[in-house]
Known about the structure:
Elements: E1 4-8, H1 12-24, E2 28-32, H2 35-44, E3 49-53, E4 55-56, E5 59-60, H3 61-71, E6 77-81, H4 86-94, E7 99-102, H5 107-117, H6 125-131, H7 143-156, E8 162-165, H8 172-181, E9 190-194, H9 203-208, H10 225-228, E10 233-237, H11 244-256, E11 258-259, E12 268-269, E13 273-278, H12 282-287, H13 293-299, E14 302-305, H14 316-330, E15 337-338, H15 340-347, H16 354-368, E16 373-374, H17 386-403, H18 409-427, H19 432-438, H20 443-453
Helix pairs in contact: 6-7, 7-8, 14-16, 17-18, 18-19, 19-20
Amino acid sequence: MNNKILIVDDEPDIRELLEITLGRMELETESAPDLGTARSLLNSHDFHLCLTDMKLPDGNGIDLVKEIQKDYPHIPVAVITAHGSTETAISALKSGAFDFVSKPVDISKLRALVSTALKLEHFLPEKNAESGDSPLKIIGESVQISNLKGQIVKLARSQAPVFISGESGSGKELVARAIHAQGPRKENEFVAINCGAIPTELMESEFFGHKKGSFTGASTDKTGLFQAANGGSLFLDEIADLPLHMQVKLLRAIQEKAVRPVGSETEIPVDVRLISATHKNLEKEVEAGNIRQDLYYRINVIELKVPALRERREDIPLLAEHFLEMLTSEHNLDKVSIQADAIEKLQAYTFPGNVRELENILQRELAMAENNVITADDLPPLKASSEVKLAATEQAIQEKITLEKEFSLEKHLEEIEKAAIEKALEETRWNKTAAAKKLGMTFRSFRYRLKKLGIE
């Protein structure tokens, strides 16, 4: 028996239950009734996992989590919490715990947790963070991307829910895939879904599955996304678009680690790593009542921010080279190069669509490149940022006030209003509902103004 587990709990019955369960998994165990004994065992043995209770005679489990994170970072720690103690579990995960299991201990869930933990490679996260090695290459050498790679390595070792924030097109799904690919679940499925792309009436069936005959059109049993991702990772993109009734069901699935298919009377245990993302400000969505606060705390245990492309302009040459190589290879074309003046023009652009927009621009230019070279003249006119456009509009209005003899206040105000609306639309990628909210008006009023001002 090569793998050794440290059990820390002041209740003899719990220690005995865990020892028997782990022994049947052919794992060696050492037990401690308190923190002092646990520290001594850590100094004298090489452990591959620690299971600790939260309440101990001489401290609590979070203290031990922090100590192990500092002194033995290669040992994953799982905490044992009281049933339904959500805040305690979240605190433990934020402190660096690998995962948690609730009392009374569910043996099947415990076995799954231990099996996942033991798949972790025996390495120091800091060493791997410096190397930046990843099965999925995240292109870039900027400080922001180097930090991001290091965070991904560390998060891959945990089972804590991760929330990835960042603008549209910045690469949130790529980051989620990298977290999965470097973690103990990498041999299992990574299931990604855009929450805003599923019709509301089909959401429950898509997430949790359904039984044959449970509703009109349900001619066969269907496996839901949670079951499809069992043992792996489930990536919920644009989670802020989930309707409230689905948020309640999602929260229960996360808390209970089980799902109930539509039309079924029994729950099915599932073991998934939850990763979520949205381009929206999640805190503001909670304040606006669009996201339940309890769900927010559950999915936002650890937040990882993906930088916008304009925040790492020095990565544009590497990204451009990567996309050109990828695109020419996909379409079996001759190698195409991009000149320095074209790179300078791209670096001067603000890229509201981020990395995705850069790829689209290069894909268009690839077909038009003469002599397999892309120059600055080949690139399309790249619009100024919305802030620059607004300033230019305001300057033009000021010039009209000064130069025109006949001045119309109504027309002047309309032009200012039009500029503000166009700015809001640009910043929300032409999402009318989001733009209306950004301007502090109702959607009906916003739609009226669009029609009045002739904005298409």
